[in-house]
Write a structure and sequence with these properties.
4-stranded antiparallel beta sheet, alpha/beta, 38% helix, 6-stranded parallel beta sheet
Length: 342
């Protein structure tokens, strides 16, 4: 069994009190040296990323890691290393994306209690058959908590912030646990009008390319044979939004992706499919509306109407919380600003 550090990390360099801008050298001693290769990353890429993100200098010898820098930055780097070490000790993998996420998480004082040597952010994870998914941003922490707590959740923000991926993970986790009997995953196909007739093939051939992101997320959470079996049995259903009309979905986990491309009437239709003992998540990016009239998005209309309704949570992600390659966040920012001349 993997072991955690025998004590909270850190021999704090100078014993005398320091201010946040004083330079210090903190030492962390990890008990299990077998985890350090994963912690440091190939060619120390995780340590290099952490140094660049926080502005510290990290050295390692044996099972001891020293962090040198301004007191506040050094302490934060120590917390990040401890959080990541504990994830590895719990059998999870760590990459540079996790480093970026841990840095973002430790920046938010309101969730400071979640980052500890004992839990390793244990309260902000979702476990599925194939993997355990941990929060990589402060909003993801709140989102995971809402997914476990609230009946209807709106997740708003740019692509790459984990909105749909975490929703599918929570849905799969609840299906495995028996909390729901089935998953229903949907999105508008092609556009809000869902005009599919010009595409070749039968209806499945027409809509599958637009539902592919939902399939990809499922195969990431469950073994392929389980996905196929559950799709065949109806435990998991993936369908375009138009197929939701006239149904009541009880004891189900229901996800609507790309919800910004619904009209207000379509959104009302979808939300009123909600049945007993169900959970519903609506994901979308209000800044990427493909409707002929972007101002007529059903997502924006629903959030405006329902933001203060009890039992409904609204989570808003920013481009700073994109958990794909860091360059994706900068691309999102560039497109949200005015175009450059010349």
């Amino acid at each position: 069994m993997s072991k955690k550090p025998s004590r909270a990390p850190g021999h704090h360099g100078p014993a005398s009190p320091t201010g946040p801008n004083d330079r210090v050298r903190l030492e962390i001693e990890f008990e299990n040296t077998h985890h350090l290769g994963s912690l440091f990353g190939q060619y120390d890429q995780n340590l290099i990323a952490l140094e660049g993100l926080i502005g510290v200098y990290i050295t390692a010898r044996g099972n001891r890691v020293q962090v040198e820098g301004e007191a506040g930055a050094a302490a934060r780097a120590r917390d990040v290393l401890t959080l990541l070490y504990n994830r590895i000790a719990q059998g999870r993998t760590v990459d540079t994306g996790d480093v970026h996420g841990a840095v973002a998480i430790t920046a938010e004082a309101s969730i400071d209690g979640l980052v500890s040597a004992d839990t390793g952010l244990a309260s902000a994870v979702i476990r599925t058959r194939k993997k355990t998914i941990a929060a990589r941003s402060p909003t993801q922490v709140r989102y995971i908590e809402a997914l476990a707590r609230d009946s209807i959740i709106f997740a708003l923000g740019p692509a790459g912030t984990g909105k749909t991926y975490l929703a599918v993970a929570q849905a799969v986790s609840q299906l495995i646990a028996g909390s729901v009997d089935r998953l229903v995953l949907s999105r508008p196909a092609v556009e809000a009008g869902e005009r599919l007739g010009f595409l070749p093939g039968d209806m499945k051939d027409k809509v599958d390319p637009y539902l592919r992101p939902l399939y990809d997320a499922l195969y990431d959470m469950l073994p392929a044979e389980q996905v196929e079996r559950r799709l065949a049995s109806g435990e998991i259903e993936i369908a375009p939004l138009a197929f939701m009309r006239g149904r009541t979905l009880a004891n189900a986990f229901i996800i609507l992706d790309e919800a910004q491309n619904t009209t207000p009437l379509q959104m009302k239709m979808f939300l009123t499919r909600f049945g007993e003992r169900s959970r519903m998540v609506v994901c979308g990016d209000p800044n990427q509306v493909d409707l002929p009239n972007p101002g007529s998005s059903g997502l924006a209309d629903a959030v405006k109407r329902l933001d203060d309704v009890e039992g409904i949570s609204v989570l808003r992600f920013s481009s700073r919380e994109v958990v794909r390659h860091p360059l994706v966040g900068r691309i999102v920012d560039a497109y949200e600003g005015p175009p450059q001349d010349g």
